[in-house]
Amino acid sequence: MTRRVVVTGMAGLCPLGTTWPEVRSHLRDGISGVSRDDALGRIAGMKTRLVAVVPPFTPPETVPEDRLAHMSRLSLMSVVATEEALRGAGLLGHELLGSGRCGISFGSTSGSPPSMGRCARAVSTETDLGGTEVADFYHAASHATAASLALAFEVRGRVIPTNSACTSGSQGIGMAYESIRDGLQDAMIAGGAEELFPVCTAVFDILYATSSRNEEPTRQPRPFDKDRDGLVVGEGAATLILEDLGSARRRGAPILAELRGYATNCDGVHMVAPQEETMYEVMANAAANAGVTPDEIAYVCAHGTATELGDIAESLATARFFGRPVPFSSLKSYMGHTLGACGALEAWCAIHFLNEGWLAPTLNLTEVDPRCGHLDYLREVRPLSGTTIMSNNFAFGGVNTSLILERWTGT
């Protein structure tokens, strides 16, 4: 017998703010989190100067200082989001965390990029480990974010590090969902994070995928717009606390939403050429897993990076699956592409949309690219008419994910 999975706590920090009220205000008022960083100009050949940076945040209160002192910015953002999510779920310091029945499924594109750079430089350029901190090698590990959460909150269940580029956060949530649904864990700390660093931007810049309209930072990116010229790289972190419904009810925990379904697949064709067919299939599989029809889904939180191939393939696949102009928008238009964090941040926002009954439009969308699918592209704040949302993400290597979230009605 499969178990129902609910969200009992959540929190995030992103370029729009470090609390939901701040993020909500930016989304409702159409305020971008993108800015210009001329330091990128010191890198020969770098075309973009645009970034999306998380504002200053306060280190978590409950984690011992000696543990925080050795954490990268990537891990710190993850711990900040997780502490607040656990507090909201009533699990901060709870015996469930150390029982072995609570685990972690949390992703990032890689380990901390600055630490990776220092390690690589020491070994390959300076050929001298003398000045290298041991902590850099810990931070550079691909599973450092998930492991840091386990250490910070003394979690003794399964740890699943998801490192699938732009689907790291959504796969983190999806694999946590499966762990609870199948009875392997009673609760999971799930989500994703990303730390901004020039190498992250350089990857996309080399591919000619970044926006180079550096004089208009808040007008970029422009997902689905006919005049878009690429994405903006950002950073952030978001955590959802997922729990078996029975466990949540026994604890008297707040229930914020139900995670109805999840699917993931792979194109198996090309590293950076997204495929409409498998995007369509992942949506169909997620809906089938959730037991919902396309007509029951009221809104799609799009991946929407503002790249030509991605926007066109995603929108065509979405239009094909729904067979109607479903409401559709991209939150990356406000906060940039936060890579390993985006799936978790977008799920966090989507749950707030469900509970508050409104939807954010795509910022900077003036004229839809005629090659994109026939959808209801949101261009202004609108009431949400329905109880179910689909959130989609697509990554390098053709990794695709789809989550189905539903407003909790108490039944």
From TrEMBL:
Q: What's the protein name? A: Beta-ketoacyl-ACP synthase
An example of a Gene Ontology cellular component annotation for this protein is: cytosol
Q: What NCBIfam families has UniProt attached to this entry?
A: PRK09116.1 (NF006587)
Which keywords has UniProt assigned to this entry? Transferase
Q: Do you know which CDD domains this protein is assigned to?
A: KAS_I_II
* Family per record: Belongs to the thiolase-like superfamily. Beta-ketoacyl-ACP synthases family.
Q: Name one GO biological process term.
A: fatty acid biosynthetic process
Record flagged with keyword Transferase: yes
